[in-house]
UniProtKB/TrEMBL annotation:
CDD domains: CGS_like. The modification N6-(pyridoxal phosphate)lysine is found at K250. The keyword GTP-binding does not apply. One of its GO terms (biological process) is methionine metabolic process. It comes from Rubroshorea leprosula. Its cofactor is pyridoxal 5'-phosphate. Belongs to the trans-sulfuration enzymes family. InterPro entries: Cys/Met-Metab_PyrdxlP-dep_enz (IPR000277), PyrdxlP-dep_Trfase (IPR015424), PyrdxlP-dep_Trfase_major (IPR015421), PyrdxlP-dep_Trfase_small (IPR015422). One of its GO terms (molecular function) is carbon-sulfur lyase activity. It comes from the Eukaryota. This is Methionine gamma-lyase.
Amino acid sequence: MADTKTHGFVLSGKKRAGADDFDGDDYFVAKKSLLPPLAPSWEDPAAALANARHEFGEHGGVNMSIEASATFTVMEPETMRRMFSGELGPDRDFFIYSRHFNPTVLNLGRQMAALEGTEAAYCTSSGMSAISSVLLQLCSSGGHVVASQKLYGGTHALLTHFLRRACNITTSFVDITDHAAVKNAMVEGKTNVLYFEAISNPTLTVADIPALSRMAHDKGVNVVVDNTFAPMVLSPARLGADVVVHSISKFISGGADIIAGAVCGPASLVNSMMDLHQGTLMLLGPTMNAKVAFELSERIPHLGLRMKEHCRRALEYATRMKKLGLKVIYPGLEDHPQHELVKSMANKDYGFGGILSVDLGTEEKANRLMNHLQNSTQFGFMAVSLGYYETLMSCSGSSTSSELSAEEQELAGISPGLVRMSVGYIGTLEQRWSQFEKALSRMQDSSLFK
């Protein structure tokens, strides 16, 4: 896709009128100038979302229409050649095929770009497809990635095994809190990407995004941040990151019923990923269904409200668990190693995230507690994933981090008894806390407490 009119992928005009071969420059500039500008000092992602273009339905509906077509017609034969050459594109509302740009998915991308404060965004069929597509776009054969030791197991496996075997892309894993080690691992002219999670899965280590971004940029390295754990809470692109990726399946969806991902970053990157000859999104084909995009676009407007309640309850539970003597990890607690850092980076009033971890020491104790929490007191469900309205629990070492070896888990700080809890908001807080206490009392094991 041509790099001209790149802003149009974020702020395109409405349906084209008249013949396909009109020039249209003045028309589209005029349409864009009518859109409300972003506030000069952007501080709140909810405000940015409110400022984003609202897509109305084809017949004036307050909700946009779903463009479910796989392919799109043209009015003039010459138009198709101009579309495939990159001369006409989504910035002028010309669409080829929904594996390329789709109008409904494009609108969801605009919302994600507003949410993360990036120039553009496009959405994919899963979080892993977003991650792999970005890395393959930014790295060629022989490329090099520096990545945090503390990553989701699937991402760790992608970097450790698949990219090395299939693409000759190597990865150096480092302690992301050891800035000297990060700096030394990046080799100017060789390293393509510094990759880390804003808040790590499942150990909840918080990355110093501004410092790491400055360090990487000094060496000409792109910074890619997975912000799945902290939408609304942190805005990595506003803190210096180049690209933000998401598993939309989690908090952004909120219903544990959709698999989806997003790439948020410069328009030039999104365009390059859709290039007909070299683009990873275009050629690998991790396409999002337009009907899925429509559903997600209806959930984003209340993401801020949901995140505030996830975070409020997570902080309250973490505080009470700590008072009981449990070994609890949560960035909102003052004894968390990066508590002051996350306070300095977080968007105001959104809290510290909706995930907490409790270290029970052994997998046997972790499993016993989760069994009581689900089957005796109905506090939550034993399930992977996160961001659901019910509390979800898993023993990370034997589930979502099982791709890491025992040595790698130890380096990442994942103990065999670490239970990750995605705190839900259904029911009252006191009702759920009472269920937690009852389950804990049934354990009858003083070794759980400090």
